[in-house]
Amino acid sequence: MSASLSFHGAGVFLTSFTPVRPSTFTGLLLITSICVYLYARNAIKHHHDVEFGKRMGCKPSAAKLVYHWPLALDIMKDGFRAGREKKLLAFFTEHFNQLSPTAEVKILGGIGYVTQDPQNIQALLSTQFQDFHLGPRSLAMKAMIGDGIFTQDGTAWKHSREVLRRQFMKMQYQNLKGFRKHLETLMERLHTSSGVTDLQPMFYRLTLDTTIAMILGQPVGSFKHGIGDLFSKAFDQASLVTGTRVRLGDMYFLYCPRGFIKACETIRRYTYQFATEALQREVESPVESDKTSFISELHRDNQDLQLVRDQVLNVLVAGRDTTAATLSYAFHLILRNPTVLETLRCEIVTVVGHEKDISRAHIQQMPYLHNVLQGTLRLYPPVPINTRFCRKTTALPVGGGPDGRSPLLVREGMPVAYSVYHMQRRQDLYGPDPLAFRPERWDGSELASIGWGYLPFNGGPRLCLGKDFGLMLASCGIVRIIQEFPGIKLAPGEVLEEPGTERQHLTLTLSNAQGCKVVLK
């Protein structure tokens, strides 16, 4: 080939680039450089993570969620169907029963872990608390409950918790007299009921009233009955959607059905109105500094009324839902077990008799009542499943290797879901009858060392501040109803189902989708 032909060919080759403008070429070069940089950075990070895992003795998880469609779309489809049928926890149980207590999960291309192992849950919530955070779970909840203690991490969360802790310390419920007015209002409502009565909505009204009056320090009438009904309806709708968004993790934004945003706006508007009216009342009728309400304390601490509203809403969520669901499930279980009802009735008669002023001393003298509540919370913890996201690469104590007993590498950004609901039903932790409601199992040494295997109120730094408040209110509620209606029984036609097979509402908290239908006698 001649030199002239070679030069001509080279010229054609070079002229082929002439349509590419310098700015375009620079842009392509920049994009390529960024891609190469990101790839190299991720490769280096992956190498460092692998080396960290080797030093910690980590082994890969042998237990993996089995799926048949790409991206585990079959699991997603079946999960959404189970959610519509109010059987989502039963759906999870079906899959968890085929896996080890800690397993790898790959869905929509993402990878994470799910655990029901007490050691790993203790690490997530306590011993390795700083290694994990709320991540996208917080963002998924903010549309509904804003920026409050349940959506905050770090310094903001610590500050909110301290403010709320001071309020619980200041509250005058230690002798339980503060509950009496609201319990007697409940008794009046129940006495006006005839035929079949659904206790569940009555319990939600009770817990909303006690939260408003005793935690927020406002008159119950300030949350007007009509507004309360609208708030509750919007709240139920929004929390159902929010629960699904939380379970979607990073992909939460994909689920925003019609009516969700409007329901969230309704909740936040009514809460804002409630908070501003409370502040106005205290301006018009000043009180001593040590008697100011929680809402005033919040406003003094932060002048932003929207942040005050969000904190109030977070408190309403916790105070209203968890204790009401526990009361409903308690009667769901008690009335399906006549021996339990009779034993509990005898204890109430012996300790309290017909006394309506129930004291903390009374409650402390009723160990069987305590066992009943423990048994209820074991089978139906208020927050059955939760998630944390890895803040920095770390290792969980167990879950790796063929036997699942080696440490497990968790890389930065990975989600770890933990199920208290399923952990508290494990046969190896609770014996051969883990689904049985048997309050006696809490007597003696059978569960003396259960430790982190029983966790209805969370644990570690995020331990529920309202634990004692909720348990005392639930205890008094059970006592007063059985005192007032000693012949209470299940409504005709109610099915005696094995715990976990009934239809359940799984929102931000767990509740019975079938209510608690009884005949009061």
Automatic annotation (TrEMBL):
UniProt KW Iron keyword: yes
Record GO terms (molecular function): heme binding; iron ion binding; oxidoreductase activity, acting on paired donors, with incorporation or reduction of molecular oxygen, reduced flavin or flavoprotein as one donor, and incorporation of one atom of oxygen
Family from the record: Belongs to the cytochrome P450 family.
Keyword Flavoprotein part of the UniProt annotation: no
Domain of life where this protein originates: Eukaryota
Gene3D superfamilies linked: Cytochrome P450
Record-given protein name: Cytochrome P450
One Pfam family per UniProt: p450
Coiled coil: none
Entry cofactors: heme
Protein species of origin: Calycina marina
Keyword terms, alphabetized: Heme, Iron, Metal-binding, Monooxygenase, Oxidoreductase
InterPro entries linked: Cyt_P450 (IPR001128), Cyt_P450_CS (IPR017972), Cyt_P450_E_CYP52_ascomycetes (IPR002974), Cyt_P450_E_CYP52_fungi (IPR047146), Cyt_P450_sf (IPR036396)
